[in-house]
Amino acid sequence: MAGADAKSSAQGGTPTKYHDKTKQPMEDAMWGKMRPVMHVVGDLADGWERFANALSPTAPFPKEKPRLILASVLVPGVAVSLLTTSAMFMRMTTFGVGVGFFSDPLIWRGLDWLNTNYPNWQKLLEIRNSLLKGVPTNAQLTITLLRIGEANRAPLPPPPSSDQPPPDKPKSLNGDDLALDASNEEIHSAIHEDPSEKEAAEAAAATTAGAEGQPKHRHGQRIVGFFKGTTATGVETKLGVDKVRAKIGSSHAKNHLGVLPKAADLGPSGPVDFKGRYKGHRGWINISTAAALPCVSWSKEISDGSGAAVEDTIDKHHKNVAFKVPIRDIQELKKVGGLGWKAKIVVGWATGKTVADGLEITDKEGNVWKLTAIQYREELFNRLAAIGGQKWESW
Could you give the maximum distance between any two Cα atoms of the chain, in Å? Predict the structure, then answer.
């Protein structure tokens, strides 16, 4: 299909889906064949995760019950293997093959009876509804832990980041401050290197450096550095142009504002107020859980961090609140990238910064609110998914 479009473009045409009447049917046919395969891959991944969580359960799910169920399935097979000879096993195998081959009419009558009296009996044979019933996948385990934290008004914090600067003060090496079963002398002896070993290492390093001679010129690194600097300059120029276009009124350019946060924009955010943009404007995404109906809203002002509604914590009375949505009315949460995946890789490599992504919120009435340049997008997504109590389906 892409080749046909390229050929039409080379001939001076403008190919669209309205001109090519076979494009949409071909896409429907391809997706119709691929969807079952994708579902099978997803089922295999879910089964693998359930087996792992059954063998290594995590609270609050039961620890011993899944293991006992798996063991109860294996015990009869082990007992039969100990009490059955090879001749008996071959006879039972041939008997089973004969029954399956010659009792086809009885089998079909039994299937018809099951379909009539138990229409969903195939679902009961699935491993998730039989052997691994009650064992969660990783996604189900995650949402359960998040909802337990929300129920106890203690949202799970985001994982620690590795892009923070090192601490200003060294960590204490006092044995009383460390959770180690060792004295201060043992700790210091393990940290400080033996003088004899240190001298031997220095001599070996000097010998290796003398054998290598003068370091080679790294022309490749200079070339890569040149292209990296040029790309970074182009990225800054493009973002500067987007600022001008956003002031004119381009909605596409407004979505690119703030995707590369500056040092002044970086700072603590969450779990109640999150820095983010709406239609290109800077502001705060507020999650209010103090009221009977938890809501999410966007405002230019930050709340007091208590979880109360943002219009109750500012003095301008709804003036800066762009929208407010009850969390239980959210129909869909869609993660959107601040840039395309290709541009995100290039920009991250050239600038050394992390691109701030966005989130689309859709309610039951079909209204869509797009939030961009969210620094802690994953934490915001986790809180919105955990508070409402909806049964989510991931895609």
Answer: 88
Count of Cβ atoms closer than 10 Å to residue 71 Cβ:
10
Q: Mind listing the pLDDT tens digit for each residue in 35-56?
A: 888 888 888 898 899 999 999 9
Distance, CA of 395 to CA of 391 (rounded, Å): 13
pLDDT tens-digit series, residues 26-35: 878 887 888 8
pLDDT at 316: 43
DSSP string, 39-103: HHHHHHHHHHHHHHHHHS--TTS-SSHHHHHHHHHHHHHHHHHHH--HHHHHHHHHHHHHHHHH-
Tokens representing residue 60 in the block: 């609050």
Three-class HEC string of 185-246: HHHHHHHCCCHHHHHHHHHHHHHHHHHHCCCCCCHHHHHHHHHHHHHHHHHHHHHHHHHHHH
Cα separation, 36 vs 250, whole angstroms: 40
Collect all residues with Cβ–Cβ distance below 8 Å to 316 and sequence separation of at least 6: 301
